[in-house]
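Protocol step 4 of 6.
Sequence for Probable multidrug resistance protein NorM (Streptosporangium jomthongense) entered exactly as in the expression construct, tag removed. Do not edit the line below.
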Amino acid sequence: MSLIRLALPVYVELLTAVVAVGLIDLFWVSGRGGPAVAAVTIATTVEHLALGVVLAVGTGTTIVVGRRDGSGPLTPVVRTAWLLWAVVSLAVTVPGVLAREPLAALFTDDPATAALTAEFLLVSLAGIPVFYAQSLTDGIFKGRGDTTTPMRVALLCNVLVIALDPLFIYSFGLGVQGAAWATVLARAATLALSLTLLLRRTPRDARQGPNRRDAVEILRAGLPLSGDFLARSLVGMTMVGVVGGFGVAVLAGYGIGLKIMLAGVMAFYALRQASTIQTARSGEAGPALPYGLLTGLVVGVVLALSARGVTGLFTDDPDVTDAAVGFLRWMPLYLVPFGGLIAVGGAFQASGRGGRLLAATLTGFAAQLSCAYFLGPLLGVTGVWLAMAAGAAIALTLVLVPVSSSSLRLRAWRARRGSGPRTAPGRGPRSTRTTAVRRSCR
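Step 5 output, structure tokens:
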């Protein structure tokens, strides 16, 4: 149950920090008309893609802090992570702000929408360092086994966005750009709180600064997950083009279905983060795979049974509704292997098998796109949904077949071995041999 205790706060955090902020902005700008809604949709999509870049630092820091906590100094790891944050923030923010207008034009041909998108991106991309800093701070907390603090901070941020959006959009007359200002300022306020809590809870040693060894370890641990995220984003964009070939109604239904499905998919990523934290800290992930498969089944069945009722909240167009319902009712075939793949991915990531996980994921994507282009003309859009299921199943199979659970445990043990034995609060040193023989993927 320790995996569930870690995962539940992460699930709430992901829903609020990843999903809710964009929806809140959309809700408040909806009174400004269609171009405003489209602009916020595009801009938040760009920001979501930018998140994939910093995952290498945030997730890598979570893993390395988890390995060191209780067995080695954390100060050099944390300071190295902040140095990496500065480099990545600068590398994303400056080009992004300068290229905001051509970037906006990539997503829309409408001049009004493109102009509003560029206005939003000017503020949101300038605020990327704040967004990245919060991600890194959350990663440090999680590495120390604390998933509750990031959840509370994310909830507070949502409350602030709800309060600030109407003030900046309407009272100050800033429109779409006001939504960006409200979001950045809300994140800045909650970041100040997070940093205050972090400074109070993290021991510091002024003699220990950033170092190359820790930077390499952080990036080696985090880059595969960053690559996985960016690959999924690119494949998602490709799938939009594939589905769009079946007509506007099908594409609209697909978009609605994805948004509905996202709330359930966040549970998979919560399990992934929980298994990452637990594997890094203890050398075992717990029953991540069966939990992921079961969660995928539950989410898939719930979506299939509630598809028509939930879809009706988003559209009253019968053609769009039918397309969304059809998509959601085929998704259990995809969500079961996808849930298992994402959940067990945390154990692979923390045990040094992230490269194998990324390779399997990319192979699954190649199979998915190939099947989509082959089955689409034969079976219609149903062939595309079956291609998604086939790709996820192939990726999960490639991950599980060549790697035994003992191999995962051995790698996690070796990753921590150089830091000496771990000491749990109130207990003596934990035997690394005992840790190594525990099951990590039941």
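Step 6, annotate. Residues 245-442 form one domain.
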